[in-house]
Amino acid sequence: MRMRSPRRVSAEVLAAQLAITTGVMVLATCLFLAPLGSELDDAATHRALSIAQTTAADPDIAREVLTTVPSSAGPVQREAERIRRATDALYVVVMDTRGVRWSHTTTAEIGRHVSTDPSAALAGREIRGIDDGTLGRSARAKVPLYDDRGRLVGAVSVGIAYDSVRGRLLDAVPALLLCAGAALAVGALAAVAVARRLRRRTHGVGFADISALLDEREAMLHAVREGVVAFDRLGRIRLANDEALRLLGLDAGATGRPLDEVLAPGRTTDVLAGRVAGTDLLTVSGGRVLVANRMPTRDGGAVVTLRDRTELEQLGRELDSSQGLLDALRAQDHEHANRLHTVLGLLELGRHDMAAEYVAEIASAHRASAEQIAERVRDPLLSALLVGKTAIAAERGVELRLSDATLLHHRVVDARDLVTVLGNLVDNALEAVAERRRGDPSAESRVEVELRAEHTTAVVRVCDTGPGVPPEERERIFVEGWSTKRPPPAPGTGVLPRGRGLGLALVRRLAERYGGMARVTARAGGGAVFTVVLPEALAPSGTAGDGLPVRPFTAAGEPR
């Protein structure tokens, strides 16, 4: 069986409009013709009544009815015929009080009783209507006939041929049909114009196709694992799929409401509303890191897509922590290997006392540095990170030290976030110092770290003696994929190696997630100062993150 091709929307609308227009014109014509016939009949009976009244008003006719006898040659017949011919009536009949005719179009009927009931007119009432008589169907009127003293002496009956009334009606039909046809033509042209406009707007698809497209759109929107939110030109939510509602923490009732009513003020609302420009914008909603892209539509609205990057961010932080641990172990391994070689040489030379003193000196220095870090930074992960970075810095010939203002006795709510921030800032500072040393070996090589608590806010500040960051680049360095270091691109791709331009971007994202900020300024004497503020990153003073009292830790991470 061959399937019928779906009719286009424009064709269906055209057919529907033509049918409606035709039906309306036919109905209007019928509604016009129906009262027209009644009006013509009413006009004919009124005309018959007027002729009858005029005839009855002639005093000679009433006097002759009283003084003469019915005759085809009598004065009543002559006057009645004169009036009939003058008015083009079908008949003018004058009767006496007995109902006997004194005049008639057919002279043989004179002197005979009328064929219709004259009682109403002989009772003094005027009547009119459509009746059947000896001359056929006619529009008739009957009025009483009075003499000059007001006595009833008979009646006058006047008839107008009904066929002439129907002829008038039929004569009016062509003009009515012409008007109806003209109106129908105008309606058809308007329908064609509307159909063409719809064909352009709907691209020639049919109603079935539109219904199928809508069903497919709904299925696709709610099946994709990305959030999709559509806004109209007034900023109201026109559509939101299930994933978008989940990511933004909204319910189905948000549809149709302005964005500012369903979301609290903040970066997420600004990004969705288009008040923040850019692509792949990062925002935090309900503890989730989202990547948003906004695309305007032709009607003044916009469509926003949302991707959940929370798990990716967590994996990135864990990878950074693992990488930092590997670097620290590698540096310590290299340093320990050198020291062991020195000890082995002293032993082979037989200088056992000097070897013992050397081992004791190294152990004491290392223990003092680790204990100093652990005393000022009570969190074991952060203190371990600083100890490891100190070893890496020493291997690179860079002095890494804590500032005098460093003091972090509070327990960190999520130490992994601070490890990510501190590790990236220190790595960035070490690379900056190393870059300056390559150009000027005599330049100062120092990195200073400051960690302190302001109630439940953690403040991280890292200063370096590197080349610094020009003012025009102080915002761009926090953009993902942008880096002040320009190594050669991967062969044949023109793309920077993986991992470049991600560290500082992660730092800013975490700061924004906590509602804080990350910025870079110039250091007095040269270099850069990176400051990160993380509100609510610390547990209240005197309690650990799980509500337990804070206990100091050693450099190895064991409680004292």
UniProtKB/TrEMBL annotation:
<dbReference type="InterPro" id="IPR039506">
    <property type="entry name" value="SPOB_a"/>
</dbReference>
<dbReference type="InterPro" id="IPR005467">
    <property type="entry name" value="His_kinase_dom"/>
</dbReference>
<keyword id="KW-0597">Phosphoprotein</keyword>
<dbReference type="Pfam" id="PF02518">
    <property type="entry name" value="HATPase_c"/>
</dbReference>
<dbReference type="GO" id="GO:0005886">
    <property type="term" value="C:plasma membrane"/>
</dbReference>
<keyword id="KW-0418">Kinase</keyword>
<dbReference type="GO" id="GO:0005524">
    <property type="term" value="F:ATP binding"/>
</dbReference>
<dbReference type="InterPro" id="IPR029151">
    <property type="entry name" value="Sensor-like_sf"/>
</dbReference>
<dbReference type="InterPro" id="IPR000014">
    <property type="entry name" value="PAS"/>
</dbReference>
<keyword id="KW-0902">Two-component regulatory system</keyword>
<dbReference type="Pfam" id="PF13188">
    <property type="entry name" value="PAS_8"/>
</dbReference>
<protein>
    <recommendedName>
        <fullName>histidine kinase</fullName>
        <ecNumber>2.7.13.3</ecNumber>
    </recommendedName>
</protein>
<dbReference type="InterPro" id="IPR016120">
    <property type="entry name" value="Sig_transdc_His_kin_SpoOB"/>
</dbReference>
<keyword id="KW-0808">Transferase</keyword>
<dbReference type="InterPro" id="IPR035965">
    <property type="entry name" value="PAS-like_dom_sf"/>
</dbReference>
<keyword id="KW-0067">ATP-binding</keyword>
<feature type="domain" description="Histidine kinase">
    <location>
        <begin position="414"/>
        <end position="538"/>
    </location>
</feature>
<feature type="region of interest" description="Disordered">
    <location>
        <begin position="541"/>
        <end position="560"/>
    </location>
</feature>
<dbReference type="InterPro" id="IPR036890">
    <property type="entry name" value="HATPase_C_sf"/>
</dbReference>
<dbReference type="GO" id="GO:0000155">
    <property type="term" value="F:phosphorelay sensor kinase activity"/>
</dbReference>
<dbReference type="Pfam" id="PF14689">
    <property type="entry name" value="SPOB_a"/>
</dbReference>
<keyword id="KW-0472">Membrane</keyword>
<dbReference type="InterPro" id="IPR004358">
    <property type="entry name" value="Sig_transdc_His_kin-like_C"/>
</dbReference>
<keyword id="KW-0547">Nucleotide-binding</keyword>
<keyword id="KW-0812">Transmembrane</keyword>
<keyword id="KW-1133">Transmembrane helix</keyword>
<dbReference type="InterPro" id="IPR003594">
    <property type="entry name" value="HATPase_dom"/>
</dbReference>
<dbReference type="InterPro" id="IPR033463">
    <property type="entry name" value="sCache_3"/>
</dbReference>
<dbReference type="Pfam" id="PF17203">
    <property type="entry name" value="sCache_3_2"/>
</dbReference>
<keyword id="KW-1003">Cell membrane</keyword>
<feature type="transmembrane region" description="Helical">
    <location>
        <begin position="12"/>
        <end position="34"/>
    </location>
</feature>
<feature type="transmembrane region" description="Helical">
    <location>
        <begin position="172"/>
        <end position="195"/>
    </location>
</feature>
